[in-house]
Amino acid sequence: MKLPPITRDLALLITRIGLGIVFVAHGWQKFNTNGLDGTAQGFTQMGVPAPTLSAYYATAAELIAGVALIVGVLTPVAGVLLFLDMVGAFAFVHMSNGVFVANGGWELVVTLGLGALVIAAVGPGKFSLDRLIVKTPARETVNA
């Protein structure tokens, strides 16, 4: 059964906003609550390579690309940057802690990363700045 295009576009909008809010909240925490130096120090303690550079990347990606997801601008780039951010979080911090976030596990970073990757792959949908700036036809998706 194929759903109406408006359903897909609304689902993409809601997903972009939800993911974007979570990314912005985490970026803001790194920037404002912990501070970039505190974030880098935490990354050092967790064994993250190049902790200062990693702290700046994670903070900027989560804040800037998170906002980009919310408004739907440069979504392929934003989605890939956020996916890579979560790959790093998975590999260097959460992978060895098991699945559950309550134990420091990877369920949240995998969910966020895969959600961002899907948005990068399928596009932002009709309700986005990308669609206003670049007039392109909506991509068709395969419905099972």
What does this structure look like?
The protein is mostly helical. The protein has helices at residues 5-33, 35-46, 51-71, 75-94, 107-122, 129-133. The protein has one domain (5-124). The chain has six helices and no strands. Helix 1 packs antiparallel against helix 3 (51-71). Residues 140-144 have low confidence and may be disordered.
Strand-residue proportion: under 5%
Number of strands: 0
Name the average pLDDT.
93
Low-pLDDT segments, ≥5 res: 140-144
Radius of gyration: 16 Å
Taken in chain order, the helices and strands follow as HHHHHH
Outline the biggest β-sheet. none
Structural class: mainly alpha
Percentage of residues assigned to helices: over 70%
Distance from N terminus to C terminus (CA atoms, Å) equals 7 Å
Whole-number tally of structural domains: 1
Q: Tally the helices: what do you get?
A: 6
Q: Given the C-alpha coordinates, what overall shape results?
A: globular
Protein topology:
Blueprint: H1 5-33, H2 35-46, H3 51-71, H4 75-94, H5 107-122, H6 129-133
Helix pairs in contact: 1-2, 1-3, 1-5, 2-3, 3-4, 4-5
Transmembrane segments: 10-28, 55-74, 108-129
Protein name: Putative oxidoreductase
Keywords: Cell membrane, Membrane, Transmembrane, Transmembrane helix
